[in-house]
Design brief:
alpha+beta, 7 helices, globular
Length: about 325
C-alpha cells in the first residue's frame, strides 16, 4: 500500500467516534484507575470487544496543569527527548515521511525486564482542528525494516489521541483510544497496568515540566507529521462540534460516567515470568508520543514482584502464552 494511504481521514473518523464514545452504546466498560494530585489527573477504563473482535480497548484521559496544548503535543511527539527519560525505549528512527499526505513512518524498539524486546513499525498522521489536535497511529510494514528473530514484532496497533485546552483553565487534556496486540497474556497485562500506570504518569509529568523549562525544545526532523499536520475535514469538525458533552473535560471524571461498577475479584498469584509478559501492554495504554509508549513496565514489575516476595507466594503457576 502506498504511504499516502496508510492513515486516512476514515481513520480520523474512527478515532473521533471512539473518543466521543458514539460508536457502540452497548459496550460494557470497566473502570481501571482514577487518580490525581495538584499537577496532574489520570483516568482510564477498558472494554473487551464483542465477539472477540480484536485486543482489549482502552480509553484514558490525562490532564496536565499549567501548560498549553501545543507544548503537550510537541512533548508527546519528541522522540529524541523521550529516549532521555523513558528508559524502555532503546531505539527509535524515522523511516519515511510523505510530504503530500503528512504521514510519517517510524520504528521503535522497547526493552522490558525478562522479555524479548518488542519492535514497533508504525505509521501516523496528525490533524489540527479549531481548538484541538488529533493523531492516529497504526501498524505497517516497511522495506527498510525486515523482521528479525531477536525482536517480537507488534502485529496489531490502533491508537490515537486528541489534545486540547481545558476550557476556563490553564490546563491541557489529552484523551486517548488504544488497542494493541503484542502477544501477551491479557489478565497479567491488566494487572500490571493497574499497578504501575500511576507511577509512570507522575514520571511523565516530571519530564513534561523539564521540557517546558528548556524553553520548548525543538523537534528533531525538519519534515515530520507535526510540521506537515493537516486540517480536520469540515464534516468531521462539525461532528465534534455537535457533541454536547465531552467526556473527561476537566479532570477525567466524565470518563467514569459510563463505566460499570467495579467488581473486586481475587486473582491467582502469577509467576514472575507471567507478570513480565503482562507488562508490554502497559506501554500502549496511555497517551505518550504517538500512543505507543512503554508505560509503567519497570515500575509495575518492581511493585508486583516485591508484593509477591513479601507474601512468600509460591511461584509455580503455569500459563498459556507465547514463548519469550
Amino acid at each position: 500500500m502506498p504511504i499516502s494511504k496508510l492513515v486516512s481521514d476514515e481513520d480520523l473518523k474512527f478515532l473521533i467516534e471512539n473518543l466521543e464514545e458514539t460508536n457502540d452504546s452497548t459496550e460494557i466498560w470497566e473502570n481501571v484507575i482514577h487518580k490525581s494530585n495538584h499537577r496532574i489527573s489520570y483516568t482510564a477504563k477498558r472494554c473487551k470487544p464483542k465477539d472477540g473482535g480484536g485486543p482489549m480497548k482502552y480509553l484514558s484521559v490525562t490532564v496536565f496543569e499549567d501548560c498549553s496544548a501545543e507544548i503537550v503535543r510537541d512533548f508527546y511527539m519528541d522522540n529524541d527527548y523521550r529516549k532521555l527519560w523513558d528508559k524502555t525505549v532503546v531505539e527509535h528512527e524515522q523511516l519515511q515521511v510523505d510530504s503530500s499526505s503528512g504521514i510519517e513512518i517510524g520504528r521503535t524498539v522497547k526493552k522490558f525486564p525478562l522479555l524479548t524486546s518488542r519492535e514497533y513499525v508504525l505509521a501516523w498522521r496528525l490533524w489540527q482542528g479549531k481548538d484541538k489536535f488529533y493523531c492516529f497511529t497504526k501498524e505497517c510494514d516497511h522495506n527498510m525494516v525486515p523482521r528479525q528473530r531477536k525482536y517480537v514484532r507488534v502485529s496489531y496497533f490502533r491508537s490515537g489521541w486528541r489534545i486540547r485546552q481545558v476550557p476556563g483553565r490553564n490546563a491541557c487534556e489529552i484523551k486517548m483510544f488504544h488497542q494493541e496486540n503484542a502477544g501477551l497474556n491479557v489478565e497479567m497485562a491488566k494487572l500490571a497496568f493497574s499497578k504501575g500506570i500511576w507511577s509512570y504518569v507522575c514520571k511523565m509529568e516530571n519530564a513534561l515540566c523539564k521540557y517546558i523549562e528548556t524553553s520548548h525544545r525543538t523537534q528533531g526532523p525538519i519534515l515530520s507529521a507535526v510540521t506537515l499536520m493537516k486540517k480536520v475535514p469540515s464534516e468531521l469538525e462539525t461532528q465534534t462540534d455537535n457533541v454536547t458533552a465531552s467526556i473527561g473535560t476537566s479532570s477525567g471524571e466524565g470518563l467514569l460516567s459510563h463505566v460499570v461498577a467495579k467488581q473486586k475479584k481475587k486473582l491467582r498469584k502469577p509467576s514472575k515470568k507471567l507478570i513480565a509478559k503482562g507488562l508490554v501492554l502497559v506501554g500502549g495504554a496511555i497517551c505518550l508520543s504517538r500512543g505507543h509508549s512503554a508505560l509503567g513496565a519497570k515500575v509495575a514489575l518492581a511493585y508486583l514482584l516485591t508484593k509477591l516476595n513479601k507474601r512468600g507466594t509460591s511461584l509455580n503457576q503455569t500459563t498459556q502464552n507465547t514463548s519469550i
